[in-house]
Design a protein that fits this description.
The structure holds 2 protein chains of 2 kinds. Chain A is mainly α. Chain A contains 13 helices and 2 strands; from the N terminus they run H-H-H-H-H-H-E-E-H-H-H-H-H-H-H. The two termini of chain A are 20 Å apart. In chain B, 48% of the residues are buried. The chains are: A mainly alpha, B alpha/beta. The complex binds adenosine-5'-triphosphate (ATP) and magnesium ion. Magnesium ion binds at residues 46-47, 89, 169, 400-401 of chain B.
Chain lengths: 312, 497
Amino acid sequence: MGQTIKATFTGDLLRKYGLLLALVLLCAVFASMSPVFMTERNLLNVLNQVSINAILAIGVTFVILIGGIDLGLGSYVALTGCLAALFASSGDALFIPILLGILGGLLIGFVNGITITKGKLAPFIVTLGMMTIARGGALVVSDGRPISNLSPSFNAIGGTFLGIQIPVLIVLVIFLISLFVLNKTVFGRYVYAVGGNEEAARASGINVHRIKLYVYILCGGLAGVAGIIQTARIETGQPNIGVGYELDAIAAVVIGGTSLSGGSGRITGTIIGALIIGVINNGLDLLNVPSYYQQIIKGLIIVGALLIDRKS
Amino acid sequence: MGADLNVLEMNNISKTFPGVHALKNVNLAVKKGTVHALMGENGAGKSTLMKILIGMYTQYEGEIIFKGERLAHSNIKSAIDAGISMIHQELSYVPNMTVSENLFLGNEPRNRWGVVDRKKLREDTQSYLNLIGVKLDPGTLMKDLSVSERQMVEIAKAISYKSDVIIMDEPTSAISDREVERLFKIIEGLKKRGVAIIYISHKMDEIFRIADEFTVLRDGTFVGTQPIEGANIDQMIAMMVGRQLTDLFPRRTPEYGPAILTVRNLTKRGVFENISFEVRKGEIVGIAGLMGSGRTEVVNCIYGLDRSDSGEIRIRDTAATIRTPKDGMRQGIGLVSEDRKTLGLVLQLSVKENIMLPNFQLCTRYQVVSDAKEKMIADGIIKDLSIKTPTRDQKAGNLSGGNQQKIVIGKVLLGNPDLLILDEPTRGIDIGAKSEIYKLISQLAEQGKAIIVVSSELPEIMGLSDRIIVLHEGKVTGELTREEASEEKIMAHAFGK
Ligand SMILES: Nc1ncnc2c1ncn2[C@@H]1O[C@H](COP(=O)(O)OP(=O)(O)OP(=O)(O)O)[C@@H](O)[C@H]1O
Ligand SMILES: [Mg+2]
């Protein structure tokens, strides 16, 4: 008896903090191999690089929690980024481009959500379609060319505030809000219920369609935020940017322990998942691993992490 | 009595889950060609013991001797190969597969090229369905079947393995009397062929009819094994509950108020037709009928889970438009569904979350949930209905079947509906808890609630209802007052006479 209780206790600990442990181990490995890794400058750099993926991953966590998926995130980043850039060229434009970027994202999410709920189509198909639509949209808005000469106040979004990169601060705020929404609000509870058993949720008087719609809108809106950050950071609206971003985002969610079949998972896990991916990218860069090999190693680490997770 | 007569012996079995000591040194000996009833309250450990036997749980203490040899199987497949099969309490099926694919899952007949033999698959399925006497197309998808049809498929599946021991975990909780009779005939046949049956049920009359011996578990401990001959029901209940039970159905003198629900000519093409009845404040109306008679479909339409084609539903004499469960709840209707697994619970969420799911308005301000209030409310329900769970944060799916049912009842009661619809409310609930629930239903009626009880159990319908409506193939064929009602009359109407 005593032994089994102890075993489940360490089991619980592992389940709770295993992910964090993996992140720390990963950092330790890279730190021992590269002297630069542990410097303050590099760590802040990692956080900055992770920010876009983290925002997308938070959005898609909600979607995966309700048992859906969004495959178009990278294209949304390009489209919303170009939209913002289009209106960011005059002298001190800041508010309007931000507004349009976010609105664009919300609208994309709205269309996704409506098509999935009212049109009764699979999220996989709908968002796959939206992926190419948004990419096309980005090319149309930008006329196929990068949009540059953006206002300094807009570009400042990619800069720092009190020594910390603004994108990192934005992620922090979004993270805290999502944590609150998911754990403390009725909406958050409904998200888990809808993902866990849609029929039972409906029978309990929940408007399942509405919850799903809100979730896709939220995910689209966050993609808009990511698009704005992306554009400000490279000071250009790039219609071709963001290819494959959705895969990194989904990987972060899954590494973070959220089940792809919906109903269970945590936002904190997603953030740690995004950090793990970011640290791998950064560490391999520092070690000068050629980028082709980096991709292979990254894939192996992701699948390996999931295998270990299933075992424990 | 020689031990060699025992086809199965489970000795000193113990099993723990995190926070739960589910079994403590339990013994079970089953003789060849007999029906052995396994009894005990909800959460006593019956299903857990059987899951160990069938190889679903491999971490346990103790030994299993099967056909004279120590059984060390490692999974369900090896248990089935050894000669043990099981009808599960919580239905397990692949929703998007057909009846025949489900029946022979992992066991498909193959032709000589090693490819699944579709024709034989169909024929074999048909012969098993005929054997258990259900009319079903083997090509129907499982998800399109009713709960009772799914249960019958499950029974056919267990029989198809030709095992030496068949475990039946509450096989009759979802089927009506006719199917029960059919099942009992099949059991007789199996007994003659030397098959031993371990039979779990909370229905005492069934136990006395078919069992040869019984074993009682209480709180995970072994209370005793006895032959049915010479045993009486009170003594059996005392063994299970640890106390005497009096009067299953409380007496009450009903006082009726105005009609809460009036249904007029409600019709859903091909399902039910011209259903009209009313339920008054303080009244308990029972709906009886065979499986497939449309009982569940009617109440689902009243609650908003389903939509009717025509007809009228009036609540407190005002026409009501009810299109979704949300509308139903707004009108003050609460439904305890017969389909616990798909409609009643989110199995992977906690007991607390499930209780609160339709009731967040009770502990919410500006959409933010108050943790403290939520816990208090959930704990209240856990206590009131004596739901057996280590903590409120336990996953609902980890609770015993009867305790899951109590969660569903609890969450609906918490909404304080004026019209309470209970569809098979005591499915899988032990006799002690049953009497608690009957008491509760009577009290609610006395407090002025209107109540509809749908049930396949005639004693339950007759014991509770002030008035009984009988359906046959989607039509009302009879209405009986409490005084008029008898089993014979209800059955006659149920068969359309
Ligand atoms: N997977 C599990 N994880 C944790 N606890 C469990 C699990 N399965 C069962 N239990 C607990 O073990 C105890 C015995 O459960 P079991 O399902 O065997 O009861 P039962 O006798 O079949 O009850 P019922 O008549 O309600 O079906 C219960 O307290 C239950 O909550
Ligand atoms: Mg059970």
